């Protein structure tokens, strides 16, 4: 590699002086529409593959319903949100859920070590609500401008066409906020046994808004009533040798025999605001909100009870977007959420077509029929606003046509003040703290698998990446770093002697967790997972 490195530019040839952050109003403020560098980057990324999804290509889905309890934490749900889908009891809101892996192609094995997508389309009486998340409750990055870089690093090498460990860890080395997610993915939690036996989460921070215009920050989670079960690397290999579609087969078969999978839909809520008392930013999607301080509050139940009639028409053409919200659920300034909101729907318009919302799988239910002044485009087959208004495809008009909905009596208005620029969060202590806590929370067998997987990967990486990764892991938990170094044959003392990353604050040693010793574990964090599958269970999955 040449000593003289070339300068990164936009596709217009403009030098990129900051490729780490979108432009926002202050450190925690919203992103702005004139984020040209980000928009150019993400919209090109959305169009890198056709017609297969760039990410989440391998998936399966099922129909079902959501039924609200009408309460949140023992209080009326209306205290937090005016969304009818969360308030109305006795109503079964139709849903379609698509499960997926992230990195592999459409025919890749479902035993891959990878986060699992958990995307839900609620067809509410007030229109669609899409909740697009994964099974691990956190993500690798906290600024959407890094998403194309992350996926490029995790996808196959453009020269060898193989996924290379050095590419994955080369990216992670410069993003310590990813250590929490890496600790999950490289543990057995990175290979769920089935889609029915895994958690789901919206990952991003949203807001609930009530009829008084009062907002609360919220995280959405789904807890499987079937329990959580994961696979070791050995068990996954045994299944993959005989069946690359075991999770699809399991979900389909369970629904066909009437064993409908069910999840309890829960929320975590906190007051809207900056929360200086926390050592992490609640808008940071690489961090979990501690459940002892922000408990999971049941909201309703999600049940899947019908398989698709046609996989392509329903599962493959289903299209989700994080910007698809209903009144009473709103955006926060989570930088990943704001970036995803542009990217997801832009991807669907490109992949499926500008009229993807006219497809039955994506169209709102009849109680909330779409009526718009949008016209034409590829694959148009009906006019949204009906026969009586077909001449007037604009608004306002004194002759008729569509009109705006009434404004709520009291609405949420977020004050925004700050200097426009590119910012990175100043709350970084939890980058190491939460990963260390996760390590100490795991059961012995989960911790052994994690160390073996990460150590085995690092054996295939160049020494600079090996040393920096061990440095990171040692700052998460000393035992974590030491054990990985032993497995990979890395000089621990040489790794510990590295300076902090340029431009990154040094990890706070006061946050260093206790060294783990066999037989000890801490409670909290991840839900308890079942013991690894037995040989009989593995055989049954083949």
UniProtKB/TrEMBL annotation:
SMART domains: Catalase. The keyword Heme applies. Residues 9-403 form the Catalase core domain. Keywords: Heme, Hydrogen peroxide, Iron, Metal-binding, Oxidoreductase, Peroxidase. GO terms for molecular function: catalase activity; heme binding; metal ion binding. The keyword Ligase does not apply. Its cofactor is heme. Heme binds at residue 344. GO terms for biological process: hydrogen peroxide catabolic process; response to hydrogen peroxide. It comes from the Bacteria. InterPro entries: Catalase (IPR018028), Catalase_AS (IPR024708), Catalase_clade1/3 (IPR024711), Catalase_core (IPR011614), Catalase_immune_responsive (IPR010582), Catalase_sf (IPR020835). SUPFAM superfamilies: Heme-dependent catalase-like. The active site is at residues 56, 134. Its EC number is 1.11.1.6. Residues 7-23, 509-524 have a biased composition (Polar residues). Residues 1-24, 496-542 are annotated as: Disordered. GO terms for cellular component: cytoplasm. Decomposes hydrogen peroxide into water and oxygen; serves to protect cells from the toxic effects of hydrogen peroxide. Belongs to the catalase family. This is Catalase.
């Amino acid at each position: 590699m040449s000593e003289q490195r070339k300068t990164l530019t936009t596709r217009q040839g403009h030098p990129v002086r900051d490729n780490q952050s979108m432009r926002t109003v202050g450190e925690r403020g919203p992103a702005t529409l004139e984020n040209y560098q980000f928009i150019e980057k993400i919209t090109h990324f959305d169009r890198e593959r056709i017609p297969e999804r760039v990410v989440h290509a391998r998936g399966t889905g099922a129909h079902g319903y959501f039924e609200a309890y009408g309460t949140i934490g023992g209080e009326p749900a209306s205290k937090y949100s005016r969304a009818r889908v969360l308030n109305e009891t006795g109503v079964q809101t139709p849903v379609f859920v698509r499960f997926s892996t992230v990195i592999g192609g459409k025919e890749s094995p479902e035993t891959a070590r990878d986060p699992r997508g958990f995307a839900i389309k609620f067809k509410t009486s007030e229109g669609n609500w899409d909740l697009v998340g994964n099974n691990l409750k956190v993500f690798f990055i906290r600024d959407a401008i890094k998403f194309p870089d992350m996926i490029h690093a995790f996808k196959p090498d453009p020269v060898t066409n193989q996924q290379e460990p050095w590419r994955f860890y080369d990216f992670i080395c410069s993003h310590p906020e990813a250590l929490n997610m890496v600790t999950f993915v490289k543990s057995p939690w990175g290979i769920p046994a089935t889609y029915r036996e895994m958690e789901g989460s919206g990952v991003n921070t949203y807001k609930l808004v009530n009829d008084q215009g009062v907002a609360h920050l919220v995280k959405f989670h789904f807890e499987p009533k079937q329990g959580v079960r994961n696979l070791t690397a050995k068990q996954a290999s045994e299944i993959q040798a005989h069946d690359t579609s075991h999770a699809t087969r399991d979900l389909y078969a369970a629904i066909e025999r009437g064993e409908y999978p069910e999840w309890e839909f829960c929320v975590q809520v906190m007051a809207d605001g900056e929360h200086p008392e926390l050592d992490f930013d609640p808008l940071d999607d690489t961090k979990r909100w501690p459940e002892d301080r922000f408990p999971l509050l049941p909201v309703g139940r999600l049940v899947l009870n019908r398989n698709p009639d046609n996989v392509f028409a329903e599962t493959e053409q289903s299209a989700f977007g994080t910007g698809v919200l209903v009144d009473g659920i709103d955006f926060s300034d989570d930088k990943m959420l704001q970036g995803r909101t542009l990217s997801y729907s832009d991807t669907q318009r490109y992949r499926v077509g500008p009229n993807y919302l006219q497809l039955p799988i994506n169209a709102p239910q009849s109680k909330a029929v779409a009526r718009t002044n949008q016209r034409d485009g590829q694959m148009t087959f009906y006019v949204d606003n009906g026969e009586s208004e077909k001449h007037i495809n604009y608004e306002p008009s004194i002759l008729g046509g569509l009109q705006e909905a009434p404004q709520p009596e009291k609405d949420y208005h977020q004050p925004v003040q700050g200097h426009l620029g590119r910012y990175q969060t100043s709350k970084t202590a939890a980058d190491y703290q939460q990963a260390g806590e996760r390590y100490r929370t795991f059961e012995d067998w989960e911790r052994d698998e994690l160390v073996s997987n990460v150590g085995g990967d690092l054996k295939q990486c160049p020494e600079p990446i090996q040393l920096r990764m061990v440095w990171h892991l040692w700052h998460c938990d000393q035992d974590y770093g030491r054990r990985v170094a032993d497995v990979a044959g890395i000089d621990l003392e040489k790794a510990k002697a590295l300076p902090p990353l340029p431009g990154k604050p040094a990890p706070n040693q006061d946050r260093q967790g206790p060294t783990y010793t066999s037989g000890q574990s801490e409670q909290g964090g991840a839900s308890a997972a079942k013991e690894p599958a037995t040989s009989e269970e593995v055989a049954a999955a083949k």
